[in-house]
Target: Cobalt ABC transporter permease
Amino acid sequence: MNSSIKIVSFSIFSIFVALSSTIYASFLLPLLLLFALNFSIIFAVIKRVVFLNLFIVFVALSVMLSQNYDLALLIFIRSNLILLFGGLLFYGANYYDIARGVSGLRLGGKVSYLVYFSIRFIEMLTSELSRIKMTLKARAFVRKTSLFTYETYANVVAMLFLKAFHSANMLEKAMITRGFECKFYELDGAKKIGFYDIILFASVLVAVIFRVGVLV
Model:
């Protein structure tokens, strides 16, 4: 599917769902469409969403402490609708696909490269954090409520900042050396809008415009 259509569809859907004070049955239409188109990855996406729900449940419980149960349920459902929709849309997409989608929106080369390098740096720092965790595990590090544990975590955060700063400096020098002109080049050309892209975008518009069937 076209990455630009994915980004626009996700932006419209997430904004309307996040700002809605009521959950309508029509909000499920784009999700049902994506379930049908991506049946093979449903369980993988749900597994990721369940992991992210650890934070959402914590937020919902904090709202329930003020005895606002309706708001807690609303936050939980809205968050999961957005996560499921985004997970089904962007499952398997890499940083170049997303940057190419931003470029297709004609927002300019600077914005496209800003998105590209932001996602690239997030992946790089995530990989670096995984490597540090493996190193700590190999050295039999055990988390405790102690000054040594806090110092260790502080050093890990500092190492990640230094890694990001060094990589950014090296990238800047490399781009200056190669005559960077803020032009985003698509290696395989612009991807055309297909039938499924139109159906997806139409389903999102129907869901946010024709709000029927109150669920919550």
Notes: The two ends are 32 Å apart (CA to CA).
